[in-house]
Design brief:
Helices cover 32% and strands 37% of the residues. By secondary structure, it is an alpha+beta fold.
Length: 178
């Protein structure tokens, strides 16, 4: 009887691993908001890490989050925001500006260290609607390697992370439209 139970367990594990081979490993989330502020102001506000505690939803979850700006001068390529929080949703990690195209886009790499280790990228696109209105588009890219990608069947990343991105965008809008 024990051998049959063990055989069934092994068969289930093998099926799960094979299914995971054929599942997507990467995902992309996109959110957009219109801000009543010139593209230059939106771009300059977001590129500086020193402003993130005012709008970043994850950092705002913990009023005692430890923040340190490292690397190149803040606001440029290579500048890094290190954050460390006891709040599991905020966690510990780094947000690095990797490429900036003035008033057009900011590319970032997000490296999470705790409570989970993974890397994601974010691209923020700045699109002027008119002189005093900007569309801000946030593209978030991440994923899970095999066999952990099986979890993507059971997790709604669009809801889990997308909601936080939407909140962050609303916070940016609120800060810039004061």
């Amino acid at each position: 009887m024990l051998i049959k139970i063990l055989g069934v367990i092994i068969a289930i594990i093998v099926v799960v691993l094979v299914v995971a081979l054929f599942l997507k490993k990467k995902y992309t989330l996109t959110r957009q908001i219109t801000i009543n502020s010139p593209v230059e102001d939106v771009y300059d506000y977001i590129r500086f890490h020193k402003n993130q505690p005012y709008y970043n939803n994850w950092l705002r979850l913990d009023p005692d989050v430890n923040i340190e700006i490292k690397g190149q001068p803040d606001g440029g390529p290579g500048s890094i925001l290190f954050f460390e929080s006891k709040n599991k949703k905020a966690g510990t990690g780094e947000w690095e500006n990797t490429r900036l195209v003035e008033n057009e886009r900011i590319e970032c790499e997000l490296r999470f260290m705790r409570p989970y280790q993974f890397t994601a990228t974010a691209i923020l696109y700045f699109k002027p609607v008119d002189a005093d209105v900007t569309d801000l588009v946030w593209e978030y890219n991440s994923g899970m390697n095999w066999p952990m990608n099986i979890m993507l069947l059971f997790m709604d990343m669009d809801k889990i992370i997308g909601t936080d991105i939407e909140t962050t965008l609303k916070n940016i809008k609120q800060q810039l439209e004061k």
